[in-house]
């Protein structure tokens, strides 16, 4: 069997040692430093991204708090404006209705009051007649 031939043991061991030493130094000097550099770059990128994320979250929270403050302020301002418009319009409606009742509807109001007075008189008279019966 050629595998067990004692003459070729030395050359096989020699080339085995040469191959593995070459492979070992290749991995030690070229492959591992490259892999370590890649891992360091990745780690640094992840750290930078994490700081960017925290900065963006802080900025987002400040923007949201500013937005909430502006929103509350605008709601308060709109409420004040709305209440002012309502009170002004109510005052205008009351003044207009008084003015219209004093000028344009004076005759109609007098006729209405006279009619109610007549109806009330008839009601009283009817009740007196009813109580007599």
UniProtKB/TrEMBL annotation:
Protein's GO biological process: ATP biosynthetic process; proton transmembrane transport
Keywords, alphabetical: ATP synthesis, ATP-binding, CF(0), Hydrogen ion transport, Hydrolase, Ion transport, Membrane, Mitochondrion, Nucleotide-binding, Translocase, Transmembrane, Transmembrane helix, Transport
InterPro entries named in the record: YMF19-like (IPR044975), YMF19-like_N (IPR003319)
Domain ATP synthase YMF19-like N-terminal residues, every copy: 2-84
GO cellular component: mitochondrial membrane; proton-transporting ATP synthase complex
Compartments where found: Mitochondrion membrane
EC number(s) from the headed UniProt entry: 7.1.2.2
Molecular function terms from GO: ATP binding; hydrolase activity
Catalysis: reaction(s): ATP + H2O + 4 H(+)(in) = ADP + phosphate + 5 H(+)(out)
Enzyme class: translocase
Keyword ATP-binding: yes
Membrane topology of this protein: Single-pass membrane protein
Pfam families recorded: YMF19
Domain of life: Eukaryota
TM stretches of this protein: 12-39
Main location: mitochondrion
UniProt-listed PANTHER family: ATP SYNTHASE PROTEIN YMF19
Complex formation: F-type ATPases have 2 components, CF(1) - the catalytic core - and CF(0) - the membrane proton channel. CF(1) has five subunits: alpha(3), beta(3), gamma(1), delta(1), epsilon(1). CF(0) has three main subunits: a, b and c.
Protein task: This is one of the chains of the nonenzymatic component (CF(0) subunit) of the mitochondrial ATPase complex.
Annotated protein name in UniProt: H(+)-transporting two-sector ATPase
Lineage start: Eukaryota, Discoba, Jakobida, Histionina, Histionidae
Gene it is expressed from: atp8
């Amino acid at each position: 069997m050629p595998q067990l031939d004692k003459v070729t043991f030395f050359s096989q061991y020699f080339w085995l040692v040469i191959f593995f030493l070459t492979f070992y130094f290749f991995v030690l000097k070229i492959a591992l430093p490259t892999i370590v550099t890649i891992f360091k770059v990745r780690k640094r990128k992840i750290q930078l991204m994490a700081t960017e994320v925290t900065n963006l979250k802080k900025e987002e929270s400040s923007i949201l708090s500013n937005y909430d403050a502006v929103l509350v302020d605008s709601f308060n301002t709109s409420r004040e404006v709305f209440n002012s418009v309502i009170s002004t319009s109510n005052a205008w409606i009351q003044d207009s209705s008084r003015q219209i009742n004093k000028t344009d509807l004076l005759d109609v109001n007098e006729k209405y009051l006279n009619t109610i007075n007549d109806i009330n008189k008839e009601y009283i008279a009817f009740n007196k007649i009813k109580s007599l019966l």
